[in-house]
Amino acid sequence: MNFDDLFSNFAQYTTTGLTQGAIYALVALGYTLVYGVLRLINFAHSEVFIAGAFAAIWTWNGFGLDQNSQVSGVGSILFYLLVAMIVAAIASAGTATVIERVAYRPLRKRNAPPLAFLITAIGASIAISEAFGVYTRRLPEGAPILVSTKPLFHVFGAPIDAVQLLTVGAALAMMVALDMFVNRSRVGRGIRAVAQDANTAALMGVNKDRIILIVFIAGGTMAGVAGLLYDVRIQTLTYSVGFLLGLKAFTAAVLGGIGNLRGALVGGLLLGVIENYASGLFGSQWKDFAAFAVLVVLLMFRPTGLLGESLGRARA
Amino acid sequence: MRQKLTRVIGGVAMLALVAGGAACSSGGEETASGDKCGNKIAFFGALTGSSAALGINENNGVKLAVDKYNKENADCKVELVELDSQGSPDQAPGLAQKAIDDTKILGIVGPAYSGESEAAGPLFNEAGLPTITASATNPTLAQQGWKTFFRAVGNDLSQGPAAGNYIKNVIKADRVFVIDDQSAYGAGLSQEVQKVLGSAVVGTDKVQGEGKQTEFSAVVTKVKAANVKAVFYGGYYQEAGLIRKQLTAAGVTAPLVAGDGVNDGAYITSAGAAAAEGTILTCPCQPATEARGTFIEEFKALNGVDPGTYSDTAYDAANILLAGIKDGKTTREGLLEFVKGYSGEGVAASYKFVEGGELDPAQVKVWAFKVTGGKVVPDQEIPKS
């Protein structure tokens, strides 16, 4: 164990961990929203993320930017980021809609057992991921360097750059917006009502299918933005990266309390820093071990996660 | 109608899944071989998929050898069979069985990678079908007791020390960070490098290969804190590209040194040309541009591209098999004996196989390549000791 390394670089492990955690958290929201309303783990959500990430890269390619392009000027950088974000959000929300329409709604109409949902979810996930794999010939695709990674300032010795600020800032903004949407708006009230008791909500005049669709679109939008932030940060995308990232995001959702929006945030950020601390302490080969060991231990004592299940429940 | 359509789409998706899992066919029935003409040799390696670049290089070399042979022996041609493994150890045994079932196939150039060689080797050994690989460099392959295994290049035990020597003598780095991907290839290679560098290695870390990790901020933090003059990575190009990119982004300018698993253009795509610049890649092979005779011109004329890494070695390997067939060794047993006793010159090196099918160590050359201007170009031959 290398305490020396962990302590001397503690601040940097924390900041980079939080950045990665912010992306986990954004993807985790999709799992948590769908679970909160349908009691269904949407395993195809990782491919919703991948669709957004590829859409952003292909948008930049459409503007003639590849992995070797360097863009200067704040105006054009913001323009490229904003356009790619919108396209990514639409692509992800669209993918989520298609998955709901093709893989889930027909099953729901026939009152299929939960196991059938699980298998269609996994089937949709593999089918979409393989389609991207074949289309990209399983080669990595590069994103242009849009945001500089030169340190802007230091916090306790850890350099902070624009990519980190953008990732964490955008993720937090999206989450606050989603939280307000669910807790304050009229549609949000509908979402909470369906989450609490779908049949009663339907009797009260809430259109259940419409609410479910909105939930998939909201989760997809978050995943699309996460895809864009992933591209900006990692700058290279392979068709297969969604699987593990999705698994981590799902873990983050469970860690924070699945069905709980704020829990997804806490879980994501926590998972990000745990991975980095474990990498520093034991070596990077232990990072997944540590992340899942923490999950198991935590669930032993708090089976519903850190903040508990709460979408639609009376808030504890 | 709409529901029906949805159902059809779902059905098609399921069918596609099932078909993907069952894409494995058996070979046709052939009569016993021994005919002088109508024989085949095969290339075994990745021609599609994420690691196809090296396989295509090699297959083009084999193509040239067969093409030349057929022009010289127009009355008694040899056919080339291309076996696309996608570089996957899972697909290798099925594909190997397919080659074995076709009794006209007398010899194989390949399998190209160590993982698929490990999976297919026992089958070839049992069937007595000689294989000459141009690029599978894991040392253990020659220690399995397979009588049909031959390697036309040096193994990682020759590449590792050379990479270490390059870091020590050419880069003159006294502080080095060593990373590997925990694979048989990557971990083995970085161990050899560490042996040569000794106390100059100030830090090590292990990452996950096979595309399982894309975020390396913890490793980057360690490398940065260690303030090193060079970083060695034992592994393959996907992760190497991401690590290089993330190191550069964090302001680490020390050059990355890696083995032949990274020696591929996809590394530059993955890292981006700016970050990849200056990366040193070793290879137990010489640059194809150093090949003797008219190889380069002939290769270009046939394939329309310049020869790449291992094109020349694969060409030589195919020529060893063809020389045997020309010599009248038209059974697998006969060809196997021929390869075992072979000694001769190719365009890339001189060939003579020793214990376990290894290339005679005196013939092994290790070269360093450097990424310059977005391309992998030959740098210099590295002394082995």
From TrEMBL, chain A:
- Location(s) in or outside the cell: Cell membrane
TM regions (residue ranges): 22-41, 48-65, 77-103, 115-135, 155-182, 211-230, 236-256, 289-308
- Give one Pfam hit by family name: BPD_transp_2
Q: Which GO terms describe its molecular function?
A: L-isoleucine transmembrane transporter activity; L-leucine transmembrane transporter activity; L-phenylalanine transmembrane transporter activity; L-valine transmembrane transporter activity
Q: Which terms under GO biological process does the entry name?
A: D-alanine transmembrane transport; L-alanine transport; L-isoleucine import across plasma membrane
Enumerate the PANTHER family for this protein.
BRANCHED-CHAIN AMINO ACID TRANSPORT SYSTEM PERMEASE PROTEIN LIVH, HIGH-AFFINITY BRANCHED-CHAIN AMINO ACID TRANSPORT SYSTEM PERMEASE PROTEIN LIVH
Instruction: Output the superkingdom of the source species.
Output: Bacteria
| Official protein name in the record | Branched-chain amino acid ABC transporter permease
Give the InterPro entries listed for this entry.
ABC_transp_permease, BCAA_transport_permease
Sorted alphabetically, the keyword list is: Amino-acid transport, Cell inner membrane, Cell membrane, Membrane, Transmembrane, Transmembrane helix, Transport
| Principal subcellular localization | membrane
Family assignment from sequence similarity: Belongs to the binding-protein-dependent transport system permease family. LivHM subfamily.
Its Gene Ontology cellular component terms are: plasma membrane
The membrane topology noted for this protein in its Swiss-Prot or TrEMBL record is: Multi-pass membrane protein
In its UniProt entry, the species of origin is given as: Micromonospora musae
TrEMBL record, chain B:
List where the protein spans the membrane.
none
Where would I find the Leucine-binding protein domain in this sequence? 40-354
Which residues, if any, are the signal sequence?
1-24
Gene3D superfamilies cross-referenced by the UniProt entry: 3.40.50.2300
The record's keywords, sorted A to Z, are: Signal
Under InterPro entries, the record lists: Leu-bd, Peripla_BP_I
**PANTHER family under this entry?**
AMINO ACID BINDING PROTEIN, LEU/ILE/VAL-BINDING ABC TRANSPORTER SUBUNIT
Record-stated family:
Belongs to the leucine-binding protein family.
Q: In its UniProt entry, what is this protein called? A: Branched-chain amino acid ABC transporter substrate-binding protein
